[in-house]
Amino acid sequence: MAINKIAVIVGSLRKESFSRKMANTLIETAPGNLKMEIVEIGALQMYNEDLDLNPPAEYTEFRNKIKRYDGLLFITPEYNRSVPAVLKNALDVGSRPYGQNVWNGKPGAVMSISIGGIGGFGANHHLRQTLVVLNIPTMPQPEAYIGNIAELFDDTGKLISESVRGYISKFMKAYEVWIGTNVKRH
Q: What are the pLDDT digits (tens) for 48-85?
């Protein structure tokens, strides 16, 4: 069984963010053939095409790191019916310079979270629009919108909802199949 390396991109910078707690939960429950790790995006300065003439070290390091992964998993909160700027910035940095898109062809999935009941529906779909342009084949089902996130973790960051744990298990099994079907070996 091939081991697939998965970059987990967390769309929130807050140290105790619910997105990060969910990312850690997904990493803990990942099937054995998925080696998942969080790739930090907070140090990337805002994308500016002028910088590609002499890219900052963090751009180059980030791009090279993403190239080493077989697949992607995005976990994002919803800010104003969209994704946080830091996540969009990471997507922009990785897609440039033109013709050197490090995201290209890597299969992915999206999970959105929200303190409200809708579960980040707007962010999820806005992110999916961007992933299409970046040629990231994104798992269509099951869609993952986790609402009322503030009630789902204890003080230590552990998931306490058994129904959400069951859903996550189904999501991760589907993701495992999606990755296995869509990873392109070089």
A: 999 999 999 999 999 999 999 999 999 999 999 999 99
Does the pTM surpass 0.90? The reply is yes
> What count of other Cβ atoms lies within 10 Å of the Cβ of residue 94?
27
Total domains in the chain come to: 1
**Domain encompassing residue 81:** 4-182
CATH (domain of 153) = 3.40.50.360
Peptide bond into 31 cis (omega under 30): no
Closest of 23, 134, 8 to residue 71, by C-alpha: 8
Our CA dihedral for 118, 119, 120, 124, rounded to 10 degrees, sits at -110
Cβ partners under 8 Å of residue 60, min gap 6: none
Query: Strand 108-113 to strand 71-77: parallel, antiparallel, or no bridges (unpaired)?
Result: parallel
Cα–Cα dist 99/135, whole Å = 12
28 touches 58 (CB < 8 A): no
Question: How many whole angstroms separate alpha carbon 7 and alpha carbon 36?
Answer: 6
